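Hi, here's the filled form for the chain we discussed.

Project: internal
Contact: R.S.
Residues: 123
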Amino acid sequence: QVQLVESGGGSVQAGGSLTLSCEASGDYNRDYCIGWFRQAPGKERERVASSDGYGSVKYEDSVWGRFTISLDNTKKTLTLQMHSLTPEDTAMYYCAADPRSWRCHTTTDLTYWGQGTQVAVSS
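And the returned structure, exactly as it came back:
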């Protein structure tokens, strides 16, 4: 089993910044992929940014250049730095991981999920 605990969400005005953190524990190791996903009201869950655990990182097009994901394998912590936030970034943000390292880049059908942290961006 893998446990994922997110933190760092909150409310911010458009143009502002937030940093989210996800602490992984249990059976998690660097062979897992891990990433950030989000779901806005009335919309499907989507990938924001993901890592295969070995340095390959992918970003959703709308966050490219504004968000940065970083993985500290020693601390088992995944961080998402978010800048130039817009109201369209408002969503529940989830950390997710999977033992099949390719899946975080390609699907939201992943094995382990955190409880989520809310991000609200006002105009």
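Let me know if anything looks off before we file it.
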